[in-house]
Amino acid sequence: MRLVILGPPGSGKGTQAAMLVDELGVPHISTGSLLRNAAKRGTELGLKAKAITDKGELVPDDIMSDMIEERLSREDVANGFILDGYPRTVTQAKSLDVMLERLHKPVQEAIHIDVDPELIIERIAKRALEEGRSDDAEETVRNRMRVYAEQTAPVADYYEDHGLLTRILGDGDIDEILQRILSVLKVNASSD
Ligand code: ADP
Fold first, then answer.
1. Where are the alpha helices (DSSP H) in the chain?
2. Distance, CA 67 to ligand 1 centroid (Å)?
3. pTM > 0.85
4. What is the DSSP code (8-state) at residue 57?
5. Which tens digit of pLDDT belongs to each residue from 66-80?
6. Which residue, among 157, 156, 110, 163, has the nearest Cα to 4 in the 3D structure?
7. Among 36, 71, 144, 180, the one annotated catalytic
C-alpha cells in the first residue's frame, strides 16, 4: 500500500499514520519527524530547517525532495509506505510523482483528514504542553495554518484531480477515525 495522508497541522495525521503501520505493515514516513531528528542530532541541515519550522514556514522543496528520495530508496519501503507531511506543496507532489514513476510504484491512495480550525487550536495548545514542540507556540501555529491553506490545501486538490483523494472527518476519538480510514482503503481496494 502506497498511501499519502494529508491534513492541516493538528489534524491527527501523524497519530493515524503511526497506527496504520500495524494495520498495513508498511513504514510511516514523517518528514516532520525526519526534520526534528536532524535538528536533535545538530546536523547542518537540521539546524537550518529548525530555524524555518520554528517560524511556521516550509523548508525549501529541493531540500525536502532530496530527503524523501533518500528515505524512499531504503529497503523497508519495498511493500509500500504511509507518507505524512510530504508532499506539502504542489511542486513536491509533482516531484514525488516523477520519483515514484521511475520506480513503477505510484501513489495509490490519498486521504485528507478534515478538522474544524477551532478544534485544531485547542489540540495544538494541548500538544504544546505535552510534547514541547518548538513550532507549537501560538503565533507559529497561526502561521502554519496560513501556510497550510495557501500551499498545502492545493495538494489535496491535486490528488482529487488525479482521482486518488478521499476526504474523511477528523472529529471523534482516535479509533473511530482509524476505522474511517480503514474502511475507505477497503472499499477502494475492492473497487480497483
Ligand atoms: P504538522 O503536520 O503538525 O504541521 P509536521 O511534523 O508534519 O507537523 O511538520 C512540522 C514542520 O516541518 C512544518 O510546519 C514545516 O515547517 C516542516 N515540514 C515538514 N514536512 C515538510 C515538507 N514536506 N516541506 C516543507 N516543510 C516541511
1. 13-24, 31-41, 44-53, 61-72, 90-102, 117-131, 138-147, 153-161, 174-191
2. 13
3. yes
4. P
5. 999 999 999 999 999
6. 110
7. 144
